[in-house]
Amino acid sequence: MSRHRTRATVLSSLLMGLGQIYNKQYMKGALMMAFEAASVMYFILNLGYAFWGIVTLGETPRTAANMQPGQYDHSIFILIQSLITILYLIVFLVVYYFNIRDARKIGAQRDEGRPVHNFRQSVRYVLDYKFAQAFLSIPAMGILFFTIMPIIFMVMIAFTNYSAPNHIPPGKLVDWVGFETFKNLLALKTWSHTFYGVLTWTIIWAILSTVTTYFGGLLVALLINQKGIRFKGFWRTILILPYAIPQLISLLVMRNMFNGEFGPINQYLGYFGLSGLPWLTDPFWAKVTVIIVNMWVGIPVSMLLIMGVLTTIPRDMYEAAEVDGASGYQKFRIITLPMILFTTAPTLIAQFAGNINNFNMIFLLTGGDPVKGDYQYAGATDLLVTWLYKLTLNQNRYNMASAVGIIIFLIIASFSIYNYRRTKSFKEEDMIQ
Amino acid sequence: MNFKKSFRKALLLVAVLTLTASMTACGTKSSTGGGEGANTPAPSNAANNKENTTAVQDGELVPEEGAELLVWESREEVPFTEEIARQFEEKYGVKVKIEEVATTDQVGKLTTDGPSGLGADVIIIPHDHLGNAAASGLILANDVFAEDTKKNNTEASIIGATFEETLYGYPRAAETTALFYNKSLVPEAPESFEDLIEFGKTFTDKSKKKYALMWEAGNMYFNYPFIASGGGYLYGDNGTNKDDIGLAHEGVAESMKVYQSLAEILPIKSGDINPDIKRGLFGAGDVAMDINGPWEVAGYKEALGDNLAIAPVPTVNGKPAITFSGIKIYTVSSFAKYPNAAKLYAQFATTKEAQLLLNEKIGSVPTNLEALETDQIKNDPIVSGFAEQAKNSEPMPSIPEMANVWAPVNAAMADIWDNKTDPKAAMEKAITQIKDLNNGLAAE
């Protein structure tokens, strides 16, 4: 008794909408056929070109003989066009699958002798019961073509040789090189030395900057919350100020303040008879400087966060501790610190991930300098992300930049996933006892 | 309830329509299937036609029907370009639109914007970017006006505007570095760096923030005399041979020693010197001398007035200091819809009159031979100071590999200056790095 079901399925697999028409859903079938006709038309025009393009990335560079648009291949444009066509092919196949499923379902309904929806009823059904899915398919398409497609494109760049000086379209073509870019980055001495150097500093920076701002903020928050401190509002305001000034302004000012020769900081040191330090010109001291300035910018954020947490700690815990004769330090170690750490751990990890990519701090304060002679386009304080910026915007080595970008993504994604899983488990956990 | 339903329906319908529209919009690209066919009719390229090249005389070239031009110009020179664009429109009836783009960014921007049809038709670039632009086929040769250009401009500017035997550029102005000095502090410019150091010992006082000479010690552009005067060079064969890097010759170590000895009268880390700080100190009379280029003239003149004077860079070990010369050149984009109009514009903006206008507005040094002979230029002490230095200048190499030189040599300079490294060793390290970059170890 599955005659209709089988037939409808087979017919729909042959041609979109045929099974629906067989199921006497003429309107729906016609719409699907129209969709297929339009898509097939588009594929006839573009699909061959797309596959040719994604495999070869173009064959004819632009020379003096073929300067007009259409006479030459621009590898990067071809890559994007091919991607769009192939993504549309995937969308088409998904729709095709649903059309077969639909024909099969309706056929089964007919086998069981149940009535079949007419077109009006189908539309009504979709609007009443599948409204969310129907409507969300539009933004989903948008996300596919405006978010996912560019990301795929940028990942693909890492597997090509799209870089200055020898592979920049339209005068030159771009080719697939597989994992060679990654191999160069991780194994070839000219690049790997820079990469590991910058990576090491990035990790050191992320750890130090996160720890210093967090514990600095903790210290300040505890100080302000002490009994007997007056003008709490005033202190809080003063400490929030660095956070309130845009970094673009404050960091560029800092850059001048820390100037080894003409900066006010070294001049003050000079008044006390101390010789100034090479704040921004010595590789080691430049690193110290960015950490210090980052503390100045970052402590207010942690302070606010921790102040909020402090207000949630029940007072009776402290009272009970006092009854048991605990000293101030013991109260801090046994009650305050665990409570704060427990609540803010996810934020701490998020801050760590954010600091790995703290572009502003480095770019505005040191610009990655002081220059290191044995690095490729990077300086002593460059993080991976500022190095990526230099590779892309100053050197046009897009493939290297893309590879570095993928590596940054892997690092940050792993932290974020860990963090996310933590928070979920944390939701189900009981309070510490 | 009913209204709600119909509203939802309408919403869905709109959404579906938008989707189909956007899908078809994504996919209306005429396939070229391997780069043939689907040609747009090419605009008549009378000028590109080999037979016509010789026949077309100056003035015979006419702009295409309905031509419009887009040109890029750096911020400082926009007033000049506005004036030129107005005159050009009066003469030829072609509208010229101006967009502000820094000269050093224009080749990069044309690489990305040209193919998408958003690039300028005429760009103005420092000539060391020429090799990159020409090698990637971004620009058209200067063919129609080649005779004119070669006849009317200085030899150095023609070398700068040429890449691999082909003339691409239309030279507009020459730039080189020279010694700026404050006459109230240094009545006579020192002849040699030895004299300068003697003077420096009397003037430099670190505690009072007074320095005899301050310049960007960590930037190769300003330090070229310490390479070239000792017989060094960046690339051999007049800057065309990428495998012959002359940074570590015996003479270079000698002249770099002079560079190193200057730290005595400028006891500052190279990283602490930046143009802003220097500008402030020079304007306030705390710095007596600076090695700099013509773009700084307007600002310094405002600060010092008649006390500002320009002299050639002092001699290095008794040899005249050889500075870099940069030529600002117009080139015509190969993506230009109206190449004839674009070529006409590039020619129009580099005539004697145009270069004199630019000098009037900005204080530039012309490349046009007749313009250099006019009273306006001859009586301008600033320009004649630069012109004096320009006699001992070498054009920057314009091959694409030029881009690989800056970072390694700047790092070496900082090393030699700050850490008192042996010049020869530092330069040899730089050479290794440049060669690595040139041989594509890093590029492939």
From TrEMBL, chain A:
SUPFAM superfamilies given for it? MalF N-terminal region-like (SSF160964), MetI-like (SSF161098)
Source organism per entry reads: Paenibacillus woosongensis
Q: Which residues form a coiled coil?
A: none
* Protein family membership: Belongs to the binding-protein-dependent transport system permease family. MalFG subfamily.
> What is a biological process (GO) this protein takes part in?
maltodextrin transmembrane transport
**Which residue ranges does UniProt annotate as crossing the membrane?**
30-55, 75-98, 134-159, 198-222, 234-254, 284-313, 334-354, 398-418
What topology does the record note for this protein and the membrane?
Answer: Multi-pass membrane protein
Gene Ontology cellular-component terms for this entry are: maltose transport complex
Main subcellular localization, coarse class? membrane
Q: What are the protein's GO molecular function terms? A: ABC-type maltose transporter activity
Which segments constitute the ABC transmembrane type-1 domain?
Answer: 199-419
Q: List the subcellular locations.
A: Cell membrane
* Residues annotated as signal peptide: none
Report if keyword Hydrolase is assigned. no
Q: What does this protein do?
A: Part of the ABC transporter complex MalEFGK involved in maltose/maltodextrin import. Probably responsible for the translocation of the substrate across the membrane.
Q: What is this protein called?
A: Maltose/maltodextrin transport system permease protein
* UniProt cross-references to Pfam families, sorted A to Z: BPD_transp_1 (PF00528)
Alphabetically ordered keywords of this record: Cell membrane, Membrane, Sugar transport, Transmembrane, Transmembrane helix, Transport
Automatic annotation (TrEMBL), chain B:
What are the GO cellular component annotations?
ATP-binding cassette (ABC) transporter complex, substrate-binding subunit-containing
Domain of life, source organism:
Bacteria
Q: Which GO terms describe its biological process?
A: maltodextrin transmembrane transport; maltose transport
The UniProt similarity line reads: Belongs to the bacterial solute-binding protein 1 family.
Q: Which GO terms describe its molecular function?
A: carbohydrate transmembrane transporter activity; maltose binding
Q: Region (Disordered): which ranges?
A: 28-60
The entry's protein name is Maltodextrin-binding protein
How the protein sits in the membrane?
A: Lipid-anchor
Q: Name one Pfam family in it.
A: SBP_bac_8
Q: Which residues form the signal peptide?
A: 1-25
For this UniProt record, the keywords arranged alphabetically read as follows:
Cell membrane, Lipoprotein, Membrane, Signal, Sugar transport, Transport
Chain intervals with Low complexity compositional bias: 38-49
Keyword Calcium: yes or no? no
**InterPro entries per the record?**
Maltose/Cyclodextrin-bd, SBP
Q: Where in the cell is it found?
A: Cell membrane
